[in-house]
Each structure stands twice: as structure tokens, then as C-alpha cells.
Amino acid sequence: MAIVSEGRGKRAVTHYRLIRPLRDAALAWSVVRVEASEIDRTDILAATRRAMREALLQLAPAPAVAVVDAVVLRDLPFPVLSIVKADRIAYAVAAASI
């Protein structure tokens, strides 16, 4: 968890330094982009939910369960556990923000 804790709340340069080790260690990873126009058309929470859903669905292999930070996601083909401040207790959640 040290490498992820080091990157949380740091400058973008630190995040870029952590991307490769995290990708190399991950079983699967995904990146999703949401356009500003979508955020403006809906709202930040709706855009976040859509991006998280899309990112989770792109994972291969698919997760047996997903742990996410505070956002409730429904109707996915696997269980989703939403925990407030999950990034403080789950390595994968903390790494996802990097």
C-alpha cells in the first residue's frame, strides 16, 4: 500500500510515476474518459457512475466483486460493494484513482 499511499493527493508527476508499476501488478485495468459536455448535460455524479460502470465492464477478466468508493452502482453482472472512504481500506480502490 505504500506506493499507492505515496501517490494519493500528490502532484500529477507523482501519479505518472506510479502508473506503470500499478499496471504491471494489476490483473486487469481500464481507463474511461467522460467529456465535459456530458457532465454539463447531466451532472458530475451521473457522469461518474457512467464512467465507473463502463470501466468495470471493460475489465478482463471480469471481477467476481467490485469494491468502489461511496458511489452506488446497480445492474452490473457482478456484485458491487460501495464503501465510504474505501480508498483508505482497499488497495485496489486507492490505486484506481491513480
In sequence order, what are the helices and strands, one letter per element?
A: HHHHEEH
Report low-confidence residues grouped into runs of 5 or more.
Answer: none
Number of beta-strand segments: 2
Helix content: 40-55%
Strand content: 5-15%
> pLDDT average, as an integer?
86
Task: Give the neighbour order of strands across the main sheet.
Answer: 1-2
- Structural class from helices and strands? mainly alpha
Helix tally equals 5
Kindly provide the radius of gyration, computed on alpha-carbon positions and rounded to a whole number of angstroms: 14 Å
By oligomeric state, this entry counts as single chain
User: Quick one: biggest sheet?
Assistant: 2 strands, parallel
So what's the overall shape?
A: globular
Distance between the termini: 13 Å
What's the helix and strand layout?
Blueprint: H1 2-7, H2 12-25, H3 36-41, H4 44-58, E1 66-69, E2 80-83, H5 91-96
Parallel strand pairs: 1-2
Gist of the model:
The chain has 98 residues and is mainly alpha-helical.
What features would you describe in this structure?
The chain has a two-stranded parallel ribbon with strand order 1-2. The chain has five helices and two strands; from the N terminus they run ααααββα. The mean pLDDT is 86. With 98 residues, it is mainly alpha-helical. 48% of the residues lie in helices and 8% in strands.
